Amino acid sequence: MTRYPDRVTSPDIHVLPAHVARLIAAGEVVSRPLDVVRELVDNALDAGATRIEVEVDGGGLRLVRVRDNGGGIPAGSVGLAPLRHATSKLSPQARSVEGVTTLGFRGEALWAAAQAGELHVVSRPAAQVGACEVLAQGEDVQVARASAPAGTTVTVRNLFARLPGRLRTQAPAASEVREVTALLGRYVLHHPGLHWRLTVDGEVRLTHAPSDHRGAVASVYGPLSANRVLAVSGEGVRGVVSRPELTRARRDRMHVSVNGRPVLAPPELERAVIEGFGELLPAGVAPLCVLDVTVAPGDHNPNVHPAKQVVALADLPGVAARVRAAVAAALSAHPLARALPALRPAAEPAPAPGHAAFPALTLLGVYQELYLLAQGEGDLWVVDAHAAHERALFEHLTRTLGAAPPAELPEPELLHLTPEQTARLHERGPELQGWGLTLEDFGAGLARLRTLPAALAPLNVPRLHEQIVESALGDGPDPRRDVLARLACAPALKAGMLDLGRGQAVLDALAACEHPWACPHGRPTVLRLGERDLAHAFGRRGARDVPRGRDAAPTGGPGVSGS
User: Fold this and answer.
1) pTM of the full predicted structure?
2) Residue with more model confidence, 313 or 151
3) 3-state class of 396 per DSSP?
4) Which of 251, 285, 295 is nearest to 101 (CA)?
């Protein structure tokens, strides 16, 4: 669990001066039950709670209750809690707004809940004898003594009952419950070291016992997803990211928190995660990730959104670079061969091996003149020869691109460009020339090609010059990589071109690659199937109980014979 030592604040509550309150005013706090849940959970986390229980009835309009075992509110301050801009989380000095270290800070949550419904607070610090309770509705506040365990329980009943116009515009109860469940799931993902429980209309919907990020993924998305995530640990970045085979067409499972606050991830951070995968992800898909980003309190502003779901970062490019590096490092530390399609519907997914080296594979045969069958680490491997050859060619071109001076064309070649390509040429011209591609605007929608990188000039690729220019001036963010990926595909072995001799050469070339697990376009190069999976699929009752190759590589030879 990530700790933020400055979060637990002084228990003394005070009303912020008007000049400070104006600095943090950011709009209405409570416009739906979801807002009440978010604000109360933030308060519980700020109080240092290790157990947080949330109850919702009637979609939250009838009741929202959040119970925690945090620090509690002292008897001398509890009467101030429902007042507007009354908070223990900021000092009365204006400069305190520039260094917020808590999830809540405006002092509006309880006041807004009392304006929208009936607020009931029962709280007791552990060292205090007896608890206090507060009943607040509108501006009417009543304080009394009570008996309760240490911590705080906040209940909000009959939301918007006095505001019929607002009540009529609320979402159906089922829709609000779905949003509340998703919100609590995000808190579980980013605060996995706590006890969590969500109860809806008396039915427990979500529970989580303290664990790590992988355990939180299991609680929210199930054990199958949890078995396919890798730990991420970098400078100011911690969490998990899914293996390349666990992807979605949408980015709805890319979760980011900043200093413990779940936020809507800026597009720059989502893009950094995807870029960290490099060629391991096909275009148009997104991984599952849970990343906790930590920055200095003064380097972020959580006061740019009424619900604090958006934060402004002082150094967004720097944070994105750290996220990209952390994701790339996590992926490079693990072998990323994907499991073969399950031979039976109930087959369990294969856990990741514990080491990242590409195994030594022994060629067994060729299937359909395109796929290689090989044995290694006790598993059966199927290699897509085209994808593997493409990966090897791509890395070879990458290594040799700048090894020799550019090749001058005997006669400059004129090529037609679209207006978009011409605009990109003006933007990228110096970059292209830096790696040997000299392309000059010739006017009238034409460009003059004068030099090619020496590594690309001799390639036997149809329409070589046109393909290079089209890729270099395409809409991708990395023209150099786009050119090399396109040129590596054309000469790679195709179906019908493969034999045993070429197959062994492909295996050797793939083993020498820095990133052997996927082709430059994100397709897997290899799939693997363990002996145990085969035994189960064939219904062998006396199957040898040996670890799968992806569980633990055997210490002996490539396999052990048996009946």
Assistant:
1) 0.71
2) 151
3) helix
4) 295
